[in-house]
TrEMBL record:
This is 3-dehydroshikimate dehydratase. The lineage of its organism: Bacteria, Pseudomonadati, Pseudomonadota, Alphaproteobacteria, Sphingomonadales. Its EC number is 4.2.1.118. One of its GO terms (biological process) is 3,4-dihydroxybenzoate biosynthetic process. Its cofactor is a divalent metal cation.
Amino acid sequence: MSPTLPQNAIATVSLRGTLEEKLKAAAVAGFAGVEIFENDLIGSALAPYEVRAMLDDLGLACMLYQPFRDFEGMPGDLRRRAFDRAKAKFDLMDELGADRILICSSCHPAALGERERIVDDFRELGDIAQQRGIILGYEALAWGRHVNDHRDAWAIVEAVDHPHVGIILDSFHSLSRNIPNDSIRAITGDKIAFVQLADAPLLDMDLLYWSRHFRNLPGQGGLDVEGFVAEILRTGYDGPLSLEIFNDRFRSNAARLVAEDGCRSLDYVRDAAKRLIDQPTDMPAPQPVLSAEFVEFTADGRDAARLGSNFATLGFTLVGEHRHKKVTRWRQGGVNLVINAEPKGFASAYRAAQGTAICAIGVRVKDKAAVLARAAALGIKAYSPEGRPGRLAMPALRGVGGSLVYLIDADEVEGLWAREFHATDGDAGVVGADARSIDHLAAVVHNDEFLSWQLYWRALFGLEARAAQDVIDPSGLVHSQALQSADGAFRVTINATDARETLSARFLDHGIGGGYQHVALITDDIFATAQALRDEGAAMLDIPVNYHADLAARFDLDDAMIARMADLGILYDEDSDGAGFWQLYSRAFDKLFFFEFVQRANGYAGYGAPNAGVRLAAQNRFRPEATPTATL
Ligand SMILES: O=C(O)c1ccc(O)c(O)c1
Ligand SMILES: [Mg+2]
């Protein structure tokens, strides 16, 4: 259960299952109330009074009944029928214990757009609602026939000027149409009957289709929901913030997962909005990740030795051994890899589930105590071995695929290494690979968790999302989302797929959860790096000649450079400003995880997305079925 703020609500349409399952999931996650979505009630075997009893048992308020469609501006007999329908809903709301109803702007082909008529309709229904103790909230659907902008809905509500008629703001409808958030300043806070929130990926498509299939939680898309909420709070509105998410993934995801993420996303967006308008907030501010300090692999016995050799061929040198544990430290420039071969503890448990794998990362932050406090406020669990977190040299949070994120204060880094490890002068790695630091970490997660992990990084550390990419694996589509700190010093990509034979899917099948599949290292001279690795016999990924022939056609690069790239297996991309990006891949260790070397020039900010398909096709040649004799 996440720590509950009293003002979080969720529409039942956002969750999978029967109405009972939806309500239980909302309660367990810590929501204070729900919006009952009409279809969920109609399809339910529970009578309205039973729903009410269940809500009471679960400690949930019924904050809204919705939607009521095609009410305003109806001519003739249709008007009378709209009023009769409304009265029937008021009776139902009595049974449910709901005191407000959402009336969405009409899409009816017969609806009239004349302002006075619409105002009269709301005034008349407002009188009836008042006698029943009900509040009407008017929401402008982005595709409404005459009213599709909250500014018009507000003009109507203002003109109606009735104590039981207010406006409902829904971030999707406003932001999908690029209506400026500051237009909310014209609205009086006590006239806002309810607030619905949804984010969405920035897609250029029909508004209704976009809304009904692609909405997601604040912090999972590209809309300025923070700015939207900030303007609402500025009006003085202090009612609930409610999630109304129509999303194809959420319809099949576990309701528990979506509800838990939902609470987290509301807490996150409320905090972010308050910061925008300098209102006090209970949550510590997000601490940016300054950099990834280390990547920890779990491996034992022969695997640990083979992994160390693999690191050495890629330019890492064994520089330290843990003073008390079977843990070694490998370094190249500012990159630290750790191999944990302990027979007990977290790494060993992770190994039992996932085999030899990346089991943790360590990140440098300015103030780890603040990160831990923010994580707690967001319901993100800290790792506590056998309930004794005090014994940990480094605190850690649960992260992607059950791995850990260790937190290290920037000023304690060197001391920590010196305290925990004694220096060795073991195997020297390849000289001249010259990786300087970690560019990014790439995780593969189950499709159900694709949006969850985005929210995690954005809410906890304030990472920013780049535009999502669809990457073509020979066996299917892979969704990829890059997230990074504002200065680009820490980057992760989250990858997921529905297609069962893709490299990502095969990585997932290997263990029982997601995890990090590759680590990208920055080099300042990728040609020298590639040559040094070649000279030492590192196993690198060959790239087909067709690729480099195409490069020559696409970019204005000199022939000698392209010939060298072809020889060394280097990939290239360029942004629209001509900034270049070079990539070089190692062969995967046991066909599982691999390294990438990259060089960024002139502020290239992407990840070589156009090359991902070529890389996946190249890696696919080594899939177990295709070449059973291939090693590494
Ligand atoms: O897609 C719809 O019809 C619909 C219904 C009710 C809402 O509150 C909404 O935002 C959209
Ligand atoms: Mg809505």
